[in-house]
């Protein structure tokens, strides 16, 4: 991967990270603002369900931010774009679709097949 491509992925990851952090901040503000007392039990239950879903989504995004940070560290270390299993380059098309990928498509498929075999036991 050349410098231009590396910089493209660095910017893409940084923009994605910032977008997720902004969404997280808006969620926190929204949860703080919506701490109102709702008298109707059905409305209160609906709001609690919405809050729980929002918090689960934010937790997934928090984990995604950690993976983005790892990808950015791999860029800094010169390890970005190489499969952790085979050491072979990950295709640019795959990285563009999933910039946090750590496995080549072939290694990912093998991993998923082995997971399925172990899950079926």
From TrEMBL:
Gene3D superfamilies: DksA, coiled-coil domain. The gene is dksA. The lineage of its organism: Bacteria, Pseudomonadati, Pseudomonadota, Alphaproteobacteria, Rhodobacterales. Residues 5-75 form the DnaK suppressor protein DksA N-terminal domain. It holds the Pfam family zf-dskA_traR. Belongs to the DksA family. Its main location: cytoplasm. Keywords: Cytoplasm, Metal-binding, Zinc, Zinc-finger. It comes from Palleronia caenipelagi. This is RNA polymerase-binding transcription factor DksA. NCBIfam families: dksA. One of its GO terms (biological process) is regulation of gene expression. GO terms for cellular component: cytoplasm. Residues 78-113 form the Zinc finger DksA/TraR C4-type domain. One of its GO terms (molecular function) is zinc ion binding. Interacts directly with the RNA polymerase. It is found in: Cytoplasm. Transcription factor that acts by binding directly to the RNA polymerase (RNAP). Required for negative regulation of rRNA expression and positive regulation of several amino acid biosynthesis promoters. A zinc finger (dksA C4-type) spans 83-107.
């Amino acid at each position: 991967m050349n410098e231009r491509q590396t910089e493209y992925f660095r910017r893409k990851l940084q923009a994605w990270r910032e977008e997720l952090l902004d969404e997280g901040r808006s969620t926190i503000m929204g949860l703080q603002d919506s701490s109102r007392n709702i008298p109707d039990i059905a409305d209160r239950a609906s709001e609690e369900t919405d809050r729980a879903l929002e918090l689960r989504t934010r937790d997934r995004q928090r984990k995604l931010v950690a993976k983005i940070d790892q990808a950015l560290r791999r860029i800094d270390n010169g390890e970005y774009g190489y499969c952790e299993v085979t050491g072979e380059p990950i295709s640019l098309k795959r990285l563009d679709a999933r910039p946090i990928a750590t496995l080549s498509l072939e290694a990912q498929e093998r991993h998923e097949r082995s997971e399925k075999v172990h899950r079926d036991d």
